[in-house]
Amino acid sequence: MSTKEKIKLAATKLFAEQGFLGMTMKEIANEVGIKPPSVYAFFKGKEDLFVAIYHDLLDGHLSVVESQVNHDLPAKDQLYNILKSTIEFQYKEDLKSKFLIRLMIFPPDFLEEDIRERFAEMEQGEFNVLYQIFHHGINADEIVDQDPRQLATTFQGLMDGLFWEMQRYSFDEMNQRMDLMFNLFWNGIKS
Questions:
Q1: Domains, the chain
Q2: Which of 3, 20, 103, 137 might form a disulfide with 142, Cβ 3.0–4.6 angstroms?
Q3: In Å, what is the CA distance from 115 to each residue of 29, 92, 164?
Q4: Are 175 and 102 in contact (CB under 8 A)?
Q5: Angstrom distance (rounded) from CA 119 to CA 59
Q6: With contact defined as beta carbons under 8 Å apart, do 94 and 31 qualify?
Q7: In angstroms, rounded to a whole number, what is the distance separating the alpha carbons of residues 123 and 44?
Q8: Would you give the DSSP letter of residue 146?
């Protein structure tokens, strides 16, 4: 792992535990085992480092969603794979998930607008992927004919709900809950 990635990992941990105001660049350097000025070789300051981490996280989430698009598969399988892969990603990136929760609940003032815009971009990308899947599923007579925009929005709500539930349940319990919710959702829209 590169020094830059080690710095981001250490900062993610400290941001998740202490929040933006609660940690320092010196603490990050100590966590990595480098001198504090070395951090500035990679990042202009704490704000720059913070932005890099949350951009990586949102890009990673969207990348996982986009990777599940395969129009050779039925819409049901693509949607299920999106849920399963995003849950696996969030559990694998547990530290980053904690960082994201703190970010959503306590955004630093200087970044509120940027965070709002970046989340909106990520959610729009996610929406576009879901819209394509639902549109394709409707055209293939897998899904009852209805507005794919509403289906995509509803599915995003399901994903958000599952994300928050992940904070309370083990991986196995979460998979059981995901299966239950997905099957109820699918049974309500299938042709």
A1: 52-189 (1.10.357.10)
A2: 137
A3: 25, 23, 19
A4: no
A5: 10
A6: no
A7: 28
A8: S
> What size, in residues, is the chain?
191
- Give the phi and the psi of residue 11 in degrees, each rounded to 5: -65, -40
Please state, in angstroms and rounded to a whole number, the distance separating the CA atoms of residues 91 and 165: 12
Residue 143 has pLDDT above 80, yes or no: yes
Write b or e for each residue in 105-120: b if 16 or more Cβ atoms lie within 10 A of its Cβ, otherwise e. eebbeebeebbeebbe
Asked if 64 and 85 count as a contact pair (C-beta separation under 8 A), the reply is yes
Give the pLDDT score at 130.
97
CA–CA separation, 132 and 127 (whole Å): 9
The tokens of 66 are what?
Answer: 């986009």
Q: What distance lies between CA 159 and its chain's CA centroid?
A: 10
The residue among 51, 6, 50, 48 whose CA lies nearest residue 29 is 6
Task: Give the span between the Cα atoms of 9 and 96, in whole angstroms.
Answer: 9
Distance CA 82, CA 118 (A): 21
Dihedral angle of Cα 35, 52, 60, 5, to the nearest 10 degrees:
-10
Three-state DSSP at 147 gives coil
The DSSP symbol for 143 reads: B
For 52-62, what is each residue's pLDDT tens digit? Answer: 888 888 888 88
44 neighbors 110 (Cβ within 8 angstroms): no
Q: Which amino acid is at 109?
A: D
**Contact by Cβ (8 Å): 122, 129:** no
